[in-house]
Amino acid sequence: MTPYHLAIIIDGNRRWAKEKGLSSFEGHKAGFDNLETMGDYCLDKGVKILTVYCFSIENWKRSEAEVAYLMKILEVGLDKYTKKCVKDNVKLLVIGQKERLSMSLQEKIRKSEEITKDNKRAILNLAISYGGRAEIIEAVRKTKGEATVEAINGNLWTAGQPDPDLIIRTGGERRLSGFLTWQSIYSELYFTDTYWPAFTTQDLDLAFEDFSNRQRRFGK
Question: For the chain, percent helix, then strand, then coil, each to nearest 5?
Answer without folding.
Answer: 50, 15, 35
